[in-house]
Every structure is written in C-alpha cells, then in structure tokens.
Write a structure and sequence with these properties.
Layout lengths: L3 E2 L2 E14 L3 E12 L3 E5 L6 H8 L7 E6 L2 E2 L2 H4 L2 H10 E4 L12 H11 L4 H15 L14 H13 L5 E5 L7 H16 L3 E5 L3 H7 L2 E5 L5 E6 H6 L1 H6 L8
Parallel strand pairs: 4-9, 4-10, 7-8, 8-9
Antiparallel strand pairs: 1-2, 2-3, 2-5, 5-6, 10-11
C-alpha cells in the first residue's frame, strides 16, 4: 500500500525494519520510515550506526531480518526480485553508488563501464552511445574513455561509477558516502551535481557523516542513533541547529 508523504507517494516505505549480520550483530533496529518520490535525503549518524546498511536495504542488496521494505508499495524481497517484471522495473529505477567505487567497476575501460548498463536494459547501440556521451561530457570523463579503472584516481573511480549509474537514467539514486575520499574541488562538483539531479526530479538518498555537506545540500535528514534506531527526521536547518541531538548521536563533541 502506498503511503502519502506531503501529498506525494512514498517511493520507499520501511515498516519496523531490523537487520542483524550473522543473525546476531545488530545494524538497524525497528526502523519505520517513508521517503517521498522526488525527495532529497541525507542519512547521518556515527560510524556503525547503520547508514550503509539502510542504503543496501533500499537497493535490495540485502533483506531485513525483520520488518518490510517496499518500493512503490511492493515489498523488496528475494521472491519479488525473482519476478522478472518487478526485477526489471526495480533495477532500472534504482541506482546504487557504493562507498568504495572499485567494487562496481569491472569493464575493460571507462567507456565500456558507461555503455554496460544501457545495453543490459535493452537500449540500442545508438541510444546507449548518446546517453554515454552526454554523461561523460557532464562528468568530464571523455578524456578517460579508453582508460582502465585500475589506472584511475579515487575521485575518477567515483565519477566513473556514478557515470555508469547515470547512463541508465534511474529515477532513484542511492549514494553511500559519495564525497568520502574526494579532494575539495571534486567534492564541490559532486555536490553541485547532486543538486542538479534532484532539481531534475530524481529521488536522491545519500549517507554521510559530513555535516558541512548536509548544510550545503539542505536535504531532509534521517538521523540514526548509535543503538541503530531512528533518532530524528527533519529538515537540515533544524537538525544542524540541534546540538543536543547531534551530541547525543555522537556527531559532534561537546566538552563536559
């Protein structure tokens, strides 16, 4: 069932979701949350609070130990992802950027990485090539087209991985620590790109512990506590002004 959020339908809905690694190490506990279509969200929390786990659940890479995660009202589970129409709809709609981009770079060259997704979605060579050229121009990747991923810098790998997602034109972008390890110039460029993608109508959910990035993007903020629960959900300005909350979830330190 779709849950209205501020008059819009929920692209993701989580109901009492818990996740335990090896069935004993808690990563998330009893998390209920609706994320609206076209929204911009930042998931923040201390290291180990469950940020990456939450994004992996949304991406259907892992499944809850308890509770339910839904995409446009339909549960994301092993059985629904085994259904070809739903799998095609979901994988075409949701793009996931890993925190460590080398995990998702496997083609011989950057150009091949860009082309892989559109071709797998069944696009013709001409349309796939057009999309690839647009994305490479957007991200400044054209000079790297024939370079293998092992010859890229950390920032170039992250841009190549993001480009491989954007050529599939997903409706939803899940970005795990997208600015982690980037130099200041590349961080700024990526922030500008996220803003443009959101303004173009994409739903963007990113995880970060960078409060300055949250301040620049001004998203809705999902705050996770160190006991892996939802501590708060609200606009960036209010969250960043709440130093008691930030101290309680160990994102800032206040001397006693």
């Amino acid at each position: 069932m779709l849950v209205p959020v501020n008059g819009k339908e929920a692209v993701f809905g989580l109901q009492q979701v818990s996740y335990r690694y090896l069935n004993r190490l808690t990563a998330l506990e009893a998390l209920s949350l609706d994320l609206e279509e076209g929204g911009l969200y930042a998931v923040i929390g201390a290291n180990g609070s469950g940020k990456s786990t939450l994004l992996q659940l949304l991406a259907g890479l892992i499944h809850p130990s308890a509770g339910q995660v839904c995409f446009l009202g339909k549960e994301i589970s092993e059985s629904t992802l085994a259904d070809p129409p739903f799998l095609r709809r979901f994988r075409g709609a949701v793009g996931y950027l890993f925190q460590h981009p080398e995990v998702q770079l496997f083609c011989p060259t950057v150009l091949d990485e860009m082309l892989f997704g559109p071709l797998q979605l069944g696009l013709g060579a001409v349309e796939a090539g057009r999309r690839t050229q647009e994305v490479m121009d957007l991200l400044g990747l054209a000079p790297l087209a024939q370079r293998p991923s092992y010859m890229l810098s950390g920032g170039e790998k992250k841009k190549a991985a993001l480009g491989a997602i954007l050529t599939m034109n997903p409706e939803v972008l899940l970005l795990d620590e997208p600015t982690n390890g980037l130099d200041p110039r590349t961080q700024f460029a990526l922030t500008e790109l996220v803003t443009r993608l959101h303004r173009a109508g994409k739903t963007v959910v990113l995880s970060t512990h960078d409060l300055q990035l949250v301040g620049r993007l001004q998203p809705q903020v999902v705050v996770l506590s160190e006991d892996h629960r939802l501590a708060h959900l609200g606009p960036a300005a209010a969250i960043l002004a709440d130093t008691d909350l930030l101290a309680r979830v160990n994102l800032i330190h206040r001397p006693a």
